[in-house]
Amino acid sequence: REGRVIKPNVPPLYSLSLLPAFIIKSDPRMSYYTNVILAFIALLLFWSILRKIITNKFALFFLLILYITNYFIYWVPSIIMAENLTLTLYLAAVYFLLSKTTKVIAFIIALFAVGSYATKYANIPITLSIAFVFFGKTIFSSLKLNQKIKFLLFFTASVALFFLALGIFEALVIDNNIFA
User: Fold this and answer.
1) Amino acid 170: pLDDT
2) What sign has the CA pseudo-torsion 40, 23, 79, 90?
3) How many CB atoms lie within 10 A of CB 109?
4) Which of 53, 134, 142, 176 could make an SS bond with 170 (beta carbons 3.0 to 4.6 A apart)?
5) Rounded to whole angstroms, how far apart are CA atoms 147 and 101?
6) Is the pLDDT higher at 156 or at 70?
7) pLDDT digit string (tens) for 103-117?
8) For residue 158, is pLDDT > 70?
9) Residues 96/133, Cβ–Cβ less than 8 Å
């Protein structure tokens, strides 16, 4: 109205995750299929995390039942919200945080940390918590000092690279400066 436009400030990753479904069929209801796929991936990641930390099959089954019956878990896929992707990325980061520290793992965790921010700007606390947990895990590990420094520098460089890539993408495609 009168030439005024509301310019939304929304990060790109959730929208990009919806694209494959919209390529199949240009119908807004296709986003629900993407959300259901993300929910199943989150369930598989949760199950994988539990298998890494719990050996008792009864406890594993009980925790999976608690996860599945949680109202939030089966309600969120029915709504077009970035929380679907946030949960999946967070669980993926936790899964890799439970793995042995390598350069590849550091790179993947950095990708999921920045991916969380690229999903929703309000996820910056999740991004920072993933980074702090990785730093803590690496610092208090039994690795040699030079390995710790190498992994921490590699992780920091990867996070900086992903933030730079996100900033360039948003500046060129969305005309939004996330660094301002």
Assistant:
1) 84
2) positive
3) 26
4) 176
5) 10
6) 156
7) 999 999 999 999 999
8) yes
9) no
The whole-number average pLDDT for the span 13-39 is 90
Tokens of 18: 């919806």
Please name which of 120, 54, 114, 57 lies closest in space to residue 86, comparing C-alpha atoms. Answer: 120
> Which pLDDT score, from 0 to 100, does residue 1 have?
57
Q: SS3 string of the chain?
A: CCCCCCCCCCCCHHHHHHHHHHHHCCCCCHHHHHHHHHHHHHHHHHHHHHHHHCCCHHHHHHHHHHHHCCHHHHHHHHCCCCHHHHHHHHHHHHHHHCCCCCHHHHHHHHHHHHHHHHHCHHHHHHHHHHHHHHHHHHHCCCCCHHHHHHHHHHHHHHHHHHHHHHHHHHHHHHCCCCCC
Q: How many CB atoms lie within 10 A of CB 15?
A: 15
Given this model, what pLDDT does residue 152 score?
95
Average pLDDT of the chain? 90
The arithmetic mean of pLDDT across residues 87-92, rounded, is 96
